[in-house]
Amino acid sequence: MHNRGSNKISSRIAQIRLVSSHPEVYEPCDDSFALVDALLADRNNLLEHRPTLCMEVGCGSGYVITSLALMLGEEVPGVQYIATDTNPHAVEVTRETLKAHGVHAELINTDIASGLEKRLAGLIDVMVVNPPYVPTPEEEVGREGIASAWAGGENGRRIIDKILPIADKLLSDRGWLYMVTLTTNNPSQICLQMREKGYASRIIVQRSTEEESLHIIKFWRDFGIKPDTKENMTVNKTAPARVLDTLLSQVHWLSLKKSGNSNSS
């Protein structure tokens, strides 16, 4: 059984008993717990980082984005949260999980960040991703429902390799990316790929279970690796409130439009 530790720590993360569920939505498991533990391990840095806009790609049950919101809590006032998922049931389950914990995020039913990339470019200070990383036949990738939460194609890299360049576009000059990877995904190669984009990286949590060996990697821009990216350092040391308000009103409109086109309850 996964022990969440002392009451003080458990009050900073989502409570499993309050996490909503649906047969077609991935429930919190070892990888979810490892990602939240990595955020907890880095919490002091996150508090000092004082992010303005945080995003989860593939929110599933809402366990991770809810935990992040609780972790930052009142100590970092004014943080905005956005979460996306390609599964409409996951969006509804995340909405219920957030509400049960008294926190809020803008929720979008979309693939990774489709429709949001221009509006969010250079604005995300913290991105968290527990991608579909399980090696599967290619035809299983992108299926509807719960399969979308784990099917990763050859070496489990199909979706990861789609997410990395999008993360690069969305992260602010001081943006941090926390990502779950499996040994089979070749984490060292992922780190090399990101280094070519100008990112340093380190493993925050490494955990082996009976079925898999997980690595939670943190990436951040290192301008010593790629100094020419400094010309792009314009957006978000302190994103103006009105810019975020405009952005989030657009996101809310898109969310309503998506839910209006969806048959989900």
TrEMBL record:
Ranges for domain Methyltransferase small: 53-137
Record's keyword terms, sorted: Methyltransferase, Nucleus, S-adenosyl-L-methionine, Transferase
Localization (cell): Nucleus
UniProt keyword Phosphoprotein present: no
Keyword Nucleus set for record: yes
Family the UniProt entry places it in: Belongs to the eukaryotic/archaeal PrmC-related family.
Protein name: Methyltransferase small domain-containing protein
Species whose genome carries this gene: Acer negundo (Box elder)
Source lineage: Eukaryota, Viridiplantae, Streptophyta, Embryophyta, Tracheophyta
